[in-house]
């Protein structure tokens, strides 16, 4: 029984990894259950044993991305060698790295999922709670939600402008990193 459960878990892992790779390479349109199965090296029917449809698979990929981000922010929060402002900047930089380096995945993370919406909402909530704890260290509990929302929406805009090519040095005389530094400096005062 254990071997069967381990095999199922390994297959699920391979399917999620294959779907994430296809998403990175060509966006949601590149992700088909057939191609995911082929990329994962399993039978054509194997993906359907784990995910009822493509949307459910993409939802699982997005939830996993939120979980990873939450784990990173949690570890960052526990780092005694960083100041709260450094933790804040590093956490936001991590989100920017996902958005700029894996824009299709980032989009999936912020979409209303068609698969199991609660899975993504729970994963995002855990990650955002970790982020809010860092914001609280910087600005205090009374202002944490307002500043947290301001920071998240600002970084979301920075990512969008960067990915679309609208945030360029020639036009704005600044970079995404400089904008992030400015945000953190303003909030951490």
From TrEMBL:
Sorted UniProt keywords: DNA-binding, Transcription, Transcription regulation
Leader sequence segment: none
Record has Transcription as a keyword: yes
Record-given protein name: TetR family transcriptional regulator
Pfam families: TetR_C_33 (PF13305), TetR_N (PF00440)
GO MF annotation list: DNA-binding transcription factor activity; transcription cis-regulatory region binding
Positions of the DNA-binding region: 32-51
PANTHER family: HTH-TYPE TRANSCRIPTIONAL REGULATOR BETI, HTH-TYPE TRANSCRIPTIONAL REGULATOR RUTR
Domain annotation HTH tetR-type: ranges: 9-69
InterPro entries reported for this sequence: Homeodomain-like_sf, HTH-type_TetR-like_transc_reg, HTH_TetR, MT1864/Rv1816-like_C, Tet_transcr_reg_TetR-rel_C_sf
Originating organism: Dactylosporangium matsuzakiense
């Amino acid at each position: 029984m254990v071997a069967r459960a381990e095999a199922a878990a390994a297959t699920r892992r391979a399917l999620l990894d294959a779907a994430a790779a296809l998403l990175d390479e060509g966006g949601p349109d590149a992700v088909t259950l057939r191609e995911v199965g082929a990329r994962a090296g399993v039978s054509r029917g194997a993906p359907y044993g784990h995910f009822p449809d493509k949307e459910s698979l993409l939802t699982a990929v997005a939830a996993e991305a939120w979980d990873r981000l939450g784990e990173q922010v949690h570890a960052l929060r526990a780092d005694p060698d960083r100041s709260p402002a450094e933790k804040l900047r590093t956490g936001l930089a991590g989100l920017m790295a996902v958005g700029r380096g894996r824009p299709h995945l980032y989009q999936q993370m912020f979409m209303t999922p068609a698969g199991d919406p609660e899975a993504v909402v729970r994963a995002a909530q855990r990650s955002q709670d970790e982020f809010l704890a860092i914001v609280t260290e910087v600005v205090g509990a009374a202002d944490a939600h307002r500043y947290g929302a301001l920071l998240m929406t600002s970084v979301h805009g920075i990512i969008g402008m960067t990915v679309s090519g609208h945030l360029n040095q020639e036009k704005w005389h600044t970079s995404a990193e400089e904008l992030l530094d400015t945000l953190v400096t303003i909030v951490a005062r």
